[in-house]
Amino acid sequence: MEHKAAAFSACTRLLLTWFIGLKAAEPRAAGGGWSSDSDVRLQDGGLCNIDVLDGSSLSHQQFIQRYAFSRPVILRGLTDNTRFRSSCSRSSLLEQYGDRRVRLSTANTYSYRKVDVPLQEYVDVWLRPQSADVLGSETLYFFGDTNVTEWQRLLDQYESPPYLLPHTSAALSFGIAGPGSGVPFHWHGPGFSEVIYGRKRWFLYPPDKEPHFHPNRTTLSWVTETYPHLPEDEAPLECTISPGEVLYFPDRWWHATLNLDTSVFISTFLG
Ligand SMILES: *[C@@H]1O[C@H](CO)[C@@H](O)[C@H](O)[C@H]1NC(C)=O
Ligand SMILES: *[C@@H]1O[C@H](CO)[C@@H](O)[C@H](O)[C@H]1NC(C)=O
Ligand SMILES: O=C(O)CCC(=O)C(=O)O
Fold first, then answer.
1. Which GO terms describe its molecular function (predicted)?
2. Closest Cα partner for 189 from 271, 82, 100?
3. Measuring CA to CA, how many Å separate 238 from each of 37, 72, 227, 249?
4. Residue 19 sits in which domain range?
5. How close is the Cα of 240 to the center of ligand 2, in Å?
6. pTM of the full structure
7. Tens digits of per-residue pLDDT, 118-174?
8. 271 C-alpha to ligand 1 centroid (Å)
9. Other CB atoms closer than 10 Å to residue 42's CB: what's the count?
10. Does 43 share its domain with 6?
11. CB under 6 Å to ligand 2: residues?
């Protein structure tokens, strides 16, 4: 009898362990094996006051007329990046590119400092949730300096948004970053941003409406300290994008990003 009870309890424990293991494995598989550290500060994707359209419902010409030179837009299902997404899983990327050196930039507005480290080291050491009290100028972020020759085999698999602007060509920049990280407000030429894994919250202001921010503080600190107290007429355009959605930002628009999850992302700069 006792034997039976012990066997039953061992069996239950085994099943339970298996079940918990299965549950734990679920989000990892969905996220390409990138960590799904959840952080209460980052559950909320916030409101979305940017137009979100089905890619198939907006022609290239309508994109040019309605958005390209005047306001941001988010397009869903514009491209199918299933193959690229599977190449960007944690295991595929580390297997193919783990020993390649990547250039990290400090996550402040003017990105003063650059550091080169192997991708494996970036993932092991730096790809951590952002702590609220660390400055952007002390945070290293992998984005903005993609060596397109070294990463060509991967980047060739990426299907860029098909909507170019007249007289521009596209340049890709690839990134990976931890939950709570992001780039504080800055501006440059127009482009698209897409998340391959994870969610990314965006904040934008038109060129003539410079937001109040400290160039060395993180987006996370802006979101927790400044954003809740903004008067209505200083509210940003904002939205959180998920895989399958592409955000377009026009020329010289101020923008800041906040990764809500460990994110793999790519921007197409039009210049
Ligand atoms: C990119 O990588 C190639 C091959 O390793 C190297 O020769 C080249 O100098 C790199 N380019 C830049 C801009 O770092
Ligand atoms: C931001 O940080 C950089 C690098 O540490 C420093 O040189 C610069 O003076 C800082 N800027 C401000 C406005 O504090
Ligand atoms: O994806 C990010 O976090 C930064 C993106 C950005 O600033 C850009 O594409 O210009």
1. cis-regulatory region sequence-specific DNA binding
2. 271
3. 23, 10, 11, 11
4. 1-30
5. 29
6. 0.88
7. 999 999 999 988 988 899 999 999 999 999 999 999 999 999 999 999 999 999 999
8. 21
9. 20
10. no
11. 112, 137, 215-216
